[in-house]
Design a protein that fits this description.
The protein is of the alpha/beta class. 53% of the residues are buried. Helix 8 links the parallel strand 4 and strand 5. Helices cover 30% and strands 19% of the residues.
Length: 719
Amino acid sequence: MDIQQLKGLIQQMTLEEKIAQLLQLTAHFHEGTDNEGQVTGPMEEMGITEPMVTGSGSVLGLSGAQAVIDVQQSYLKKSRLGIPLMFMADVVHGFKTIFPIPLAIGCSWDLELAEKSAEIAAKESAVSGIHVTFAPMVDLVRDPRWGRVMETTGEDPYLNGLFARAFVRGYQGSNLKEETDRLAACVKHFAAYGAPEGGRDYNTVNMSERQLREQYLPAYKAALDEGCEMVMTSFNTVDGIPATGNEKLMRGILRDEWGFDGVLISDWASIREMIAHGAAEDDREAAYRAIRAGVDIEMMTPCYVRHLPELVESGKVDEALIDEAVLRILRLKDKLGLFENPLRAADPGREKEILLCEEHRRVSYELAAKSSVLLKNDGVLPLRKDARVALIGPFAESNDILGWWSCVGEKEDAAPLASALKERFAGTLAVSEGCGIDSMTPEQLKAALETARSADIVVLALGEESAMSGEGGSRTNIRLPQAQLELAEQLKALGKPMAAVIFNGRPLDLHGIFDEADAVLEAWFPGSEGGAAIADILTGRVNPSGRLTMSFPQSVGQVPVYYNHFNTGRPMDPSKSDERYVSKYIDSPNDPLLPFGFGLSYTSFEYSDLTLSSPEMKADEQITVQVKVTNTGERAGIETVQLYVRDVAGEVVRPLRELKGFERLELQPGESQTATFTLTEEQLRYHHSDLGFASDPGSFRVFVGANSRDTLEASFKLV
């Protein structure tokens, strides 16, 4: 349909029908499911009537091709104007084939593979009846106490923006109507949800507008610049106003300044939550504030359907606001081709062929292998082919490796590390649980010690269970559970070489493991093929190449700790550790245990010959930065060469380092390659105190290296 036809359709709708289009309900409200929509239970509690359900515009959380077909067909029989439903779901890092958690995908630094993972997730979802995914989540994160750090790609705004674009391309393709195996993407959570006080989910966010624009907004903007069709509001306040009712944020920045004319959806019940925030007295006021802010779809609360009719009739809300919202919703349905083909790609036959197919599992494996980060290795890994290995720990035989947001993925489809290692390891392998996630019996410990005594090398498989991170999974203690630390201590006392593999959804305080183990491999929640990928890294079939995109703290007392921080007026000089009146801790280093960009390999790399094409840059010119990288080890490997810049003196204080580019080099033993970067004046711009976006003439320092800490340095001037 063209825009005039859609507007004509709106003119045929009653006010109640329009407002019903703004309502999103879970599947069990609708006929065609096991709990056919009747005005009982949840419907009575919400004040939802059958006509409201009959006219509602979208469904949350239903999947399965036949189930979607049944609901859509039943719905259309009752729809006066034949407007189809949209089906939406949280397809965060895979649908049936589960990929590593997004934080892990970020650690791959592989944008093409990230895009491919989203394309596969879209294909599996679309054939199962889904039209829209609530992804990508691009919230900038600096606090690992927050459980939802697992859903984003890390602490850097530039890198998050690149991944945001890659995910949107993967989900949406280039034409949703023609490419029915794609999904409309929904970037979330707008805005600054990743900065809750104390790392506590849903908590207050409080920052300056300059910081908001400088650090937190760029990744959302990147997703929208890539054509993302939908935006989801965040649960938190922004400058004291809940995001879902924040006119300055939603109307001012998102719509007017950025020109976004797509669909804006509330997060689950976040319109009604304005009452708990203290920003609305009741559902009526919450509906008023949300529609004024430009929220098009209300997820799982009845504020709109119960109160917008009266607000319009009383003149409090202009019906034009309702028409705008409905037009945006209908336009998205049209882009998806739902008016011509309301069943779209839903196909029970293809569904059986596509879900968890061999090709999709192969990509899951590749991404798991590239996402794992070798944090420490004192010569223990890879495992010797003739070694006797004891695999011990609660994750040795656990298939809880998918992560919190695993959609319809099933743990039973994920092979545990033990079974994968048995298939791939030529030496002798003995397995013992050692302890549970957070408990240990004397019998478990005794069995683990007996297993370890007869081994040459101990491999510990430790971590958090999936419910210890994700939404609502905030923690104040981000160490491994005490039972696992005690297991490591007891095994260390045997004097055997020991490697630890950590499965988790956040950066951890690794004390009690990092010092005890001779090698540490960060596996994250690696997805459906994680066991195979980790086994191949341990045995040396795969050379680890992952690099951290979120710093690992020395302890939770450092949090938030991140690489692109300010210098302060009294920076600490590491050579003068006895100085007191400088910005430091008296009981801990300032630096994180492991910095942004860090990761080891089974080979080694050497950086040399850092050169700049000119010592000066004019505004209309650019500088070329080059560095020579040599593989000085004995096996092929991938090195992620990272470029950082510091603006030495700005009108507003600038970070000590900011990532401006990276290049992944695949090098054979003894091979050298030159990494080349281009710096332009545009890359040196930032938000000034008046929120203007410009660069400052003056001195700049350039850093190139393997991570944000270990770099070569040069300088130039912007004139």
